[in-house]
Amino acid sequence: xxxxxxxxxxxxxxxxxxxxxxxxxxxxxxxxVGGVPGLDGRPVxxxxxxxxxxxxxIDGADRxxxxxxxxxxxIDLRRPSEVQEHGRVPTYDGLVYxxxxxEHALWExxxxxxxxxxxxYLADRYRDLATTGAAGLVAAIEVIADAxxxxxxxxxxxxKDRTGVxxxxxxxxxxxxxxxxxxxxxxxxxxxxxxxxxxASTMPEAAPLPAPFLGSPAEAMTLFLGELRDRHxxxxxxxxxxxxxxERIDALRGHLLS
Length: 258
Known about the structure:
Elements: E1 6-9, E2 12-15, E3 31-32, E4 49-52, H1 60-68, E5 73-76, H2 80-86, E6 96-99, H3 118-132, H4 134-145, E7 152-155, H5 162-173, H6 178-186, H7 188-202, H8 218-232, H9 235-241, H10 246-256
Parallel strand pairs: 4-7, 5-6, 5-7
Antiparallel strand pairs: 1-2, 3-4
């Protein structure tokens, strides 16, 4: 995609190609995951992989701005029941919609306590996802590894947990340091606050969301990645053991690293 894309947002022009986070009115956690250094210091290419909360709400100016990004493939990680209840990304000419659900237990089945701590609670949920949802995580990364599918948007509901794990595994395969992966993941906390403000203003009768649904401390992601390596040896070893072909890792690096 060439040229510079912009739109008017609350009276100001926003350049959608130079900033890692595009400005939307009803998307709160949308951003480009590129720009960080990967293998051999090669940066992850921008405008190839985006992450977001669910885009089912976009309309009007948001829809126009989304279309201008030229996204070819949307990977929806939500449960089938979530898709049925809320709908999916609007249809665009040339857009391929992929619904990939990594199997995982409902969070309500694992009680959260402040004594345990949010980072530990979230890391445990991500461990569970990597255990029961390995096939779905591999399927999502296989799509991301396909250069013809790019630009790709991967999303779930809030864009921080299932999306965070897929993006973390992808960036790790690209050689991005855990600290950079965790820093990107932690940006979802501010996005969750924006979503909470929007929810309170549009649906004041809605109950406040539980703390783990809103937080994304960097420590949660560093715990998850470190413990995944402790169990499997490395992120590539985990994914290959779960069914990812080694040549897909080469393909991923070939089109996502500058």
